[in-house]
Amino acid sequence: MTLSEGVGNDGNGIVFTFSVGLAVIIVGASGLLSSYCPNFCIIFIYSCFIIFIGVLTAYITISLTILKNQLLSNIFDCKTSQLPNAQKTKEQIIWAETQFCKYDCICYIEKIQDWNSDYLENNRIHYTTNKQISDITQYQKCKKWIKIDGASYTYIAYLEEKYNCSGWCKSHPVYLFSNINNGIPKDACYPYFEKEYEYYVNKSYIDYLIVDFLYLFNLCFAICQCYQTSRNKKSRIYPQILYELAPQ
Question: Residues 102-135, buried b or exposed e (16+ Cβ, 10 A)?
Fold first, then answer.
């Protein structure tokens, strides 16, 4: 998947392109203005911030967009895919799979951020010892996990409700997302839902766009200050050096 395809497949790419393009235009315009404005240093600093945040916004969003398309197209493999510049995240995924996702039978809980180590360990034991669950275990490789192929939807719903769990024994890409200790769960892994991914992407680019527009506001304020300064000197066109040479 190419970079252009990653952005083209998501309408949000337009937002980031506009943000960066606007930042570039502002920097160029402020560069011209700096020749006629004694406060050009302020404008230059704000412009640098704008271009930095704008490019960072586009870079992060493009990476997230490509990853999203990989997940949705079912070509994402936790162990082999190269996440865009997210080596640390990839290592966490591999670590989780090595520890807890050795089998195709994965039971996950949606609100993993609410887990704690004791809850994880206790529920894991319950999954293994509870008679109703052990009765439907069919594959030896599941061992500590659950296999319910052929079970009725009613019984599946009952188990999901009782154990606050869903997606029994389905093979999915997994993604780590937890505030437990250093961010890596102690005893579990879970699939990355599309809706949660959408929230993560939206939150990322909105945060950066807000910062970008704050710097844009500051830049506009600096330009107004320059305009007022030049106006007090009865000109907005000639460089400051001419005012200094005029009395001579």
Answer: ebebbbbbeebeebeeeebeebbeebeeeeebee
Ramachandran class of 85: left when φ > 0, alpha when ψ lies in -120 to 50, beta otherwise: left
**∠ at Cα 55 (53, 57), nearest 5°?**
65
For residue range 154-200, what is the model confidence (pLDDT) as tens digits? 665 665 555 544 444 333 333 333 333 333 333 333 344 444 555 65
Are 187 and 120 contacting, i.e. CB atoms less than 8 angstroms apart?
yes
* Token couple for 27: 């920097």
Helices 194-232 & 40-72, crossing angle to 10 degrees? 170
Measured CA distances, 76 to 64, 112, 196 (Å): 13, 22, 17
Rounded Cα distance between 214 and 53, Å, is 11
Rounded-to-integer distance, Cα 178 and Cα 198, Å: 17
pTM of the model: 0.30
What is the C-alpha to C-alpha distance for residues 103 and 243, in angstroms, rounded to an integer?
A: 78
